[in-house]
Amino acid sequence: MDTIVLFARVLLGFTKLSNDALIMFFDNVLAMMTGNASYTAPSPTLPTFQAALDAFRTAVQEAMSGDRVKISTRRDARVTLLSFGRNLAAYVQGHCNEDVTTLLSSGFHAARRPSPSVIPIAPRNPRTAAGPTSGTVYLRHQKSPNATNYTVQMATTPAGPFTDYALTTSTRTLVEEIVPGTTVYLRAQAHGAAGSSDWSTVVSRMVI
Questions:
Q1: Contact criterion met (CB below 8 Å) for 187 and 205
Q2: Which of 121, 90, 120, 127 is closest to 202 using CA atoms?
Q3: Calpha distance 127→201 (Å, rounded)
Q4: Is the CA virtual torsion 37, 39, 45, 46 positive or negative?
């Protein structure tokens, strides 16, 4: 039997879970992160995340009536919860110190290390676009071969400091809650089984 080797990259497979399984998964994440000395300042905060999870739990129950409005509410609550979940996964990724045991102590799952492994190249052709609402901007880039997910970082000056914004499997990331009139600087890094790429070229945009 082949040995399964994990590496310190948060697996984002929770986004594909059924509603009930998603609730169970995040209940466990909250339980394991509460009081966890490795994660002292989660973003979003655990009470904020708990509120989003409870709202989704309630929406799932109420949607069982078949009412179309309540089904729509359930869908919106899932979108919100998954957004918070990705942000919390990005926080864990940035604070696990590349240690699988520390990552798993958060309740999130670690990715398997496939073989053979090739380090992905830095995301190419990064570019920005106006977001759908004021205070938002998109970062897009090409897919990096051998990448399983990407870290997106943001700064307000060209030289940084850069802070983690999201951990995502998508090559398009919506960056939100920016003060209109602010120029933001964005970059992306690809993660794969063999390690992480260099950072992409920094791109900027004044957010309206």
A1: no
A2: 127
A3: 9
A4: negative
**pLDDT value at residue 8:** 84
Q: Which carries the bigger pLDDT value, residue 173 or residue 5?
A: 173
Q: Which ranges of the chain does DSSP label H, i.e. alpha helix?
A: 19-33, 46-63, 68-95, 100-104
pLDDT in tens, 45-64: 999 999 999 999 999 999 99
**pTM recorded for the entire structure:** 0.59
Instruction: Count CA atoms within 13 Å of residue 91 on its CB side.
Output: 20
Strands 172-175 and 163-168: unpaired
Mind giving me the DSSP string for 52-113? Answer: HHHHHHHHHHHHTT--HHHHHHHHHHHHHHHHHHHHHHHHHHHHSTT-HHHHHTTTPPEEE-
What does the alpha-carbon distance between residue 185 and residue 175 come to, in Å, rounded to a whole number? 11
Helix, strand, coil tally for the chain in percent (to 5): 35, 25, 40
Cis peptide before 158 (omega within 30 of 0): no
Span 33-48, pLDDT tens digits: 999 999 999 999 999 9
Place of tokens 């939100």: 176
How far apart (Å, rounded) are the C-alpha atoms in residues 152 and 166? Answer: 5
